[in-house]
């Protein structure tokens, strides 16, 4: 195998053997204040910044509530749901695996394409197989709940009251 690793279109390395490439994402901050930009932590009493303050310094009080500083405005940090994304090549298996970790950082959803060896006595010899995650698979990375063909809701089941209406 010979492959080139590019980052944002720039070649940074050439790969000649089995390779494992991983992009790790900083997931330490899930919420940030959209007004002042402070990293926020969710507590039982609300969202606090690094100083333990719930009041936002960027809040501009209007005339009617002078003296009220106002709370931080929490906003989810983009891509904070992702622990890592990776590409792994395996020449022995003639396979490439893509991985996306969204739950336990020690695991990941994996998509693999593998070529069945030519010398195997099978109608699939020489053909490519695509392996995908599926609901209820053993040792799942996370629960998968079908939404549309090819689309799943991850994690907690979809609340039952969202799937049907109770007649009055
Ligand atoms: Zn703020």
Please characterize this protein's 3D structure.
With 168 residues, the protein is mainly β. The chain has 2 domains: 98 residues, no CATH class; 46 residues, no CATH class. The chain has no helices and 13 strands. The strands form 4 sheets. Strands 3-8-9-10-11 form a 5-stranded antiparallel β-sheet, with no helix packed on it. Strands 6-5-4-7 form a 4-stranded antiparallel β-sheet, with no helix packed on it. It has a two-stranded antiparallel sheet with strand order 1-2. The N and C termini lie far apart (65 Å). The mean pLDDT is 90. The structure holds zinc ion. Zinc ion (ZN) binds next to loops. Zinc ion binds next to loops.
Query: What structural category do the secondary elements indicate?
Result: mainly beta
| Residue share in β-strands | 35-45%
In this entry the ligands are: zinc ion
Shape: elongated
Estimate nothing, just give the exact number of structural domains.
Answer: 2
Oligomeric state of shown chains: single chain
Mean pLDDT: 90
Please give the radius of gyration in angstroms. Answer: 24 Å
Number of strands: 13
N-C termini distance: 65 Å
- Counted by DSSP, the helix tally is 0
The unreliable regions are none
Spatial arrangement of strands, main beta sheet: 3-8-9-10-11
* Fraction in helix: under 10%
Output the helix-strand order. EEEEEEEEEEEEE
Q: The biggest beta sheet, please?
A: 5 strands, antiparallel
